[in-house]
Write a structure and sequence with these properties.
Muramoyl-pentapeptide Carboxypeptidase, domain 2; 8 helices; four-stranded antiparallel β-sheet
């Protein structure tokens, strides 16, 4: 048995009726955008209720309860508070929660004409869920200011919904497969045939999927292959310069590599020096 000084926040300590009502209240608060509330107390033993009643009367401290007879002892009541940065008993928030509670036939202490108790909520033992309401999933009812109210919905498919979804997935698979086959078997258009065969023959592309889209990285690879093939090392000497080119190679003025590359000033100087020194 808990000590009379111990506050019980466990929702399971309430009656099944009160548990259901409390979960419904927190669910509807969540749906209304109120997620910063939490339970501060559920069940109280009569001994604890008497102990709290004595506070501010026969025991030091401020008065915290106005009665020795509370529905906390009947497991039908619970108290809540508001998480920071709001004040612990933020009137605006508690009023919103209280108005939601009234729609659910849950008694709110904020409506009492005497001894108003804004954080207090309770139900009668014969409370039933109002028409049009239901628990829509697992409701997380916090017992700490560090946790927020949550509603975790569990969507379950009926057999017909499952079969419909399965058919849609299969249809999508076929559509994707058809697109893949269409791309891989596409023929080259007549206006691009010559260029396509040229690029394929030089090894710039393997020739597959001619109608497929080209990514940037694939384009860069093609350009690199072109550069290596025609610019960097293997460019041929044009016919008009062939004789002169062969002559300077035979004289040792150049080694004959990379004939179409631009020459630097120092390379030109080296070649001129070689010309001057020809015996």
């Amino acid at each position: 048995m808990a000590s009379i000084t111990t506050t019980i926040r466990d929702l399971n300590e309430l009656s099944s009726t009160a548990q259901l009502a409390c979960k419904l209240l927190f669910q509807e608060c969540y749906k209304a955008g109120i997620t910063d509330i939490f339970i501060t107390e559920t069940y109280r033993s009569q001994a604890r209720q008497d102990y709290l009643y004595a506070q501010g009367r026969t025991r030091p401290g401020q008065i915290v309860t106005w009665t020795k007879s509370s529905n906390h002892t009947s497991r039908l009541a619970w108290d809540i508070a508001v998480a920071p940065p709001k004040s612990l008993y933020d009137v605006t928030t508690l009023t919103i929660v209280g108005n939601i509670a009234k729609k659910l036939d849950i008694t709110w202490g904020g409506t009492w004409s005497n001894n108003i108790d804004l954080p207090h909520f309770e139900v009668k033992s014969n409370w039933v869920m109002p028409e049009g309401y239901k628990l829509e999933g697992d409701v997380i009812v916090p017992t700490s200011s560090q946790v927020r109210v949550q509603l975790i919905k569990k969507e379950e498919l009926t057999v017909s919904q499952y079969e419909e979804l399965k058919s849609e997935i299969e249809a999508l698979k076929k559509e994707l497969a058809n697109k893949a086959n269409s791309n891989s078997s596409a023929t080259v258009g007549s206006s691009h045939k010559e260029s396509y065969e040229w690029a394929k023959g030089l090894g710039l592309t393997d020739g597959s999927n001619p109608a497929g889209a080209l990514t940037r990285q694939q384009l860069f690879t093609v350009l690199k292959r072109y550069h290596e093939t025609f610019v960097q090392n293997n460019a041929a000497v044009s016919a008009s310069h062939k004789e002169a080119w062969d002559k300077i190679i035979s004289l040792g003025i150049t080694d004959g590599s990379n004939p179409r590359a631009l020459a630097t000033r120092e390379q030109i100087g080296t070649m001129l020096n070689r010309v001057i020194n020809i015996k």
